[in-house]
């Protein structure tokens, strides 16, 4: 993904006329696929998940991506993080990006919590020294000290989330992408995460948040972008975006 130079005062994220199409399969088995091919039936149809999306996020902004199920929010976050690329258009980002997109996506089930902290923090761009310095803080925030040497395949989904979240928010990031993951943790942990996210925002980090918890996102983010039918239906004050979602 192209990146702006870090030395210039430019926006954090520039999404320009982004299109993303997925192929939807219409066959289930090898036999069906074979028969469809023989009958020259179309095996897939194109689905335009994002159909010409443009927006710019300035450094230090907190932006909520809103929209109903399937409107393309997670796809947009994955494009910003660089996990997937657009079919047309461009996504440009500046600075280090950490995505809390798929909980523990970089976690290895056969490694312990401790080993996964090192692995994931390294993936997120931290040096061994940086991780050593933050290790205790990461573990303390996750509150799973007792299980830190247990293989993560034995963790509950909430424990997994705690560790993944803790690693991500203790890395040196410029842009933090957060997808719905707060809903997995229990309420005290959610509150703690929100407080930490606010701290990061106050420290000038850029936030892009996806959540169906409209009250939470409108408190956290001043700006809301509503996606609908693959397009931007609204881009403005988050309170107005929430009103549109509830209309
Ligand atoms: N890899 C894929 N292959 C096929 N279709 C996909 C793929 N990824 C996403 N889609 C489709 O693209 C559309 C947008 O999905 P996306 O996950 O971005 O929506 P969302 O707004 O995050 O939804 P939700 O609120 O339900 O999480 C959906 O219709 C989804 O089925």
TrEMBL record:
Keywords: ATP-binding, Nucleotide-binding, Transport
GO cellular component, one term: membrane
The keyword Nucleotide-binding is assigned to this record: yes
Residues covered by the ABC transporter domain: 13-247
SUPFAM superfamilies in UniProt: P-loop containing nucleoside triphosphate hydrolases (SSF52540)
Statement: the UniProt record of this protein carries the keyword Nucleotide-binding: yes
Biological source species: Agromyces aureus
Xref: InterPro entries: AAA+_ATPase, ABC_transporter-like_ATP-bd, ABC_transpr_TagH-like, Bact_Polysacc_Export_ATP-bd, P-loop_NTPase
Pfam families tied to this protein: ABC_tran
Homology family: Belongs to the ABC transporter superfamily.
Protein name (database record): ABC transporter ATP-binding protein
Gene Ontology molecular function, alphabetical: ABC-type transporter activity; ATP binding; ATP hydrolysis activity
PROSITE patterns reported in the protein's UniProt record: ABC_TRANSPORTER_2
CDD domains linked: ABC_KpsT_Wzt (cd03220)
């Amino acid at each position: 993904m192209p990146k702006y130079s870090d030395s210039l005062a430019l926006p954090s994220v520039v999404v320009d006329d982004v299109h993303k199409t997925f192929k939807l399969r219409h066959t289930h088995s090898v036999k069906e696929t074979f028969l469809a091919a023989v009958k020259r039936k179309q095996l897939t149809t194109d689905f335009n998940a994002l159909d010409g999306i443009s927006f710019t996020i300035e450094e230090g902004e907190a932006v909520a991506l809103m929209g109903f199920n399937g409107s393309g929010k997670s796809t947009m976050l994955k494009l910003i993080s660089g996990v997937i690329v657009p079919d047309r258009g461009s996504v440009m980002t500046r600075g280090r990006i950490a995505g809390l997109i798929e909980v523990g996506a970089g976690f290895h089930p056969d490694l312990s919590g401790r080993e996964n902290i090192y692995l994931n923090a390294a993936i997120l761009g931290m040096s061994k020294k940086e991780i050593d310095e933050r290790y205790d803080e990461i573990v303390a925030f996750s509150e799973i000290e007792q299980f830190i040497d247990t293989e993560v395949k034995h963790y509950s989904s909430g424990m997994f989330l705690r560790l993944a979240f803790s690693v991500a928010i203790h890395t040196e990031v410029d842009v933090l992408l957060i997808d719905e993951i707060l809903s997995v943790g229990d309420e005290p942990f959610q509150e703690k995460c929100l407080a930490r996210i606010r701290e990061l925002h106050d420290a000038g980090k850029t936030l892009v948040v996806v959540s169906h918890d409209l009250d939470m996102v409108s408190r956290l983010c001043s700006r809301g972008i509503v996606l609908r039918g693959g397009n931007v239906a609204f881009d403005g004050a988050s309170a107005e975006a929430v009103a549109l979602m509830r209309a």
